[in-house]
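Minutes, project check-in

Agenda point 3 was the complex the collaborators sent over. CS summarized: two entities, 418 residues total, and the question is how they sit relative to each other. Sequences were read into the notes so everyone works from the same version.
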Amino acid sequence: MMCMTCGCGKGQTLIGGRALGGSHSLARQRKPGEEMHYRVRGEDATHTHPHNHTPAHSPAHDTIDFGAGPAGAHAPGMSQSRMVKIERDILAKNNDYADQNRRYFSRHGIFALNLVSSPGSGKTTLLVKTITALNGAQSLAVIEGDQQTDNDAARIRAAGAPALQINTGKGCHLDAHMVGQAMQRLDLKEDSLLLIENVGNLVCPAGFDLGEAHKVVIFSVTEGEDKPLKYPDMFRAADLMLLNKCDLLPHLDFDADLAVENARRVNPTIRVIRVSATSGEGVAEWLGWIKAGCHSTVSAKQKTL
Amino acid sequence: MHEMSIAESVLQIIEDKARTDGYTKVKAVWLEIGQLAGVEKESLRFCFDVVTRDSIAQDARLEIIETAGQGWCLECACSVAVTARYEPCPSCGSFQIEVTGGEEMRVKELEVE
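CS then shared the predicted structure for the full assembly.
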């Protein structure tokens, strides 16, 4: 079954074609073979599990014990309810995994980028262009996130870089636990570049830290100039925006300056590079930005050693 | 944002805490959700109902405390109310606003037995 908001669900995540190892800690633990109970309240007439009503009944059903509840006491008219303070961030578990990934990256001098965009913005083509332009000058690996198929990882491998595909099944974003598992399988090199291509989706990946140094949002000129206003969370979360497919600008009624202005309305500090994977425009500037990031990651590692 | 994952994470926090605190039934859950957290409240309610089925939080009442969005306007150098990320400063019209509050997503407390 799917999430009514974004079409995501659980239990179909594959990394490089294999099921996600261990328990996927962001999901509730279920017994093997147990189906996710995605039913709307009131649909189900059968009711098989026991309830804990107050007052508590003894097994023999012949006494009513008002003191059997966890609080062990009773005040007239009061149930055994009590309040439990929690004060815990809902995404704390994901953030813990993201911190583990981030520590691993800094220990090994790995500059990790989380590439996010809507589907069809040209992320994979831009990645292939990036890999060929780097031409072996920088050791790198790619993690590809898609709901299904390993087409993208195959394209990256054909371009000459090691790549691992994560299939999220019905899931609409990568989370830090999936990325951590993929990292173990990828054999990342010391002082390397890790490019994580997230699932094409401008909504959900914004809230899930993977441990990356930066989120990079790819926004193509075949989309609308107001996309940053429609999906502000993603443009807010990103440090760099690549305005892609700029070679098409002469053929389109797209105001690139307005698109940049809109992005800066939601994120005043976002950096913008205009690129085209087809013509190569802006690719040198993008590579320069990557190299600077790799360089500072390696120097930061050396300082801590 | 991704309400199903959020609902799953809330249930996991509740179940983790149940192991240490020894409660067997959750009657109400208080969440604090910031206005700028990107969470659709009605969608979260629906997802919460779905994921808590047959769990210790089945039929629990979900109380969502919404915290207001706040920002620091770099032009005015003062704190301003922010209702959406793309909105200008209410006093000077500038978009140079750093969000300082309203992004929270927390499980505050539970009523249990």
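Noted in discussion: The first strand of chain A starts at residue 14 and ends at 15.
Follow-up: revisit at the next meeting once the mutant set is ready.
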